[in-house]
């Protein structure tokens, strides 16, 4: 199973403040929605509870207190390894979709990183991990919005642009 990671990160590495994303960037969410349509998302319990679920996605929610789900699109797993070993039997691709703990645990395992950098320093307390060595930037596009941002794709072992 291939893993991709998708995140929006401020200039100073922030992805969240408490349970919230401490900015609103017009247009940036469209990237997330388009990329994750009909996909499996791997999320930490805090992210799932704060963001809720979008239709047409399946959620693998990681929690140390797993429970039965009454939603056919939501599955709880007691560990990341349990989630990965189950998902590999049902899909060939999943998106690592946050938050901080899940990004940190899986950033090394993702084949591709889709990262929007929001061009502002923002206060917060949840950070994106350092992009590990070995990832190459293979795509870059800048967008003007209420907060300008640049979308980049990083690929493990890719050819630098
Ligand atoms: N900017 C972005 O693109 C973006 C995207 C997503 C989220 N966020 C932000 O990220 C923040 C949330 O991140 P976070 O780091 O605080 O929380 P998180 O990663 O969303 O969830 C943490 C929870 O996941 C479970 N967990 C983590 N590692 C586990 C493991 N190895 N085994 C079993 N369960 C595990 C635990 O749940 P239990 O406590 O239930 O055991 C833990 O409390 C929020 O501010 C959110 O808005 C930002």
Describe the structure.
The structure is a single chain. With 161 residues, the protein is α/β, with parallel strands linked by helices. It has one domain (2-156): 3-Layer(aba) Sandwich (Dihydrofolate Reductase, subunit A). The chain is 19% helix and 35% strand. The chain has four helices and ten strands; from the N terminus they run E-E-H-E-H-E-E-H-E-H-E-E-E-E. It has helices at 28-36, 45-51, 80-87, 100-106; strands spanning 2-10, 14-16, 40-44, 58-62, 74-77, 93-96, 112-118, 126-127, 135-143, 149-156. The strands form two sheets. It has an eight-stranded mixed beta sheet. It binds NADP nicotinamide-adenine-dinucleotide phosphate (NAP). NADP nicotinamide-adenine-dinucleotide phosphate binds at residues 7-8, 15-21, 44-47, 50, 62-65, 78-80, 97-102, 105, 126.
Please write out the topology.
Layout: E1 2-10, E2 14-16, H1 28-36, E3 40-44, H2 45-51, E4 58-62, E5 74-77, H3 80-87, E6 93-96, H4 100-106, E7 112-118, E8 126-127, E9 135-143, E10 149-156
Parallel strand pairs: 1-6, 1-7, 3-4, 3-6, 4-5
Antiparallel strand pairs: 2-8, 7-10, 9-10
The structure holds NADP nicotinamide-adenine-dinucleotide phosphate (NAP).
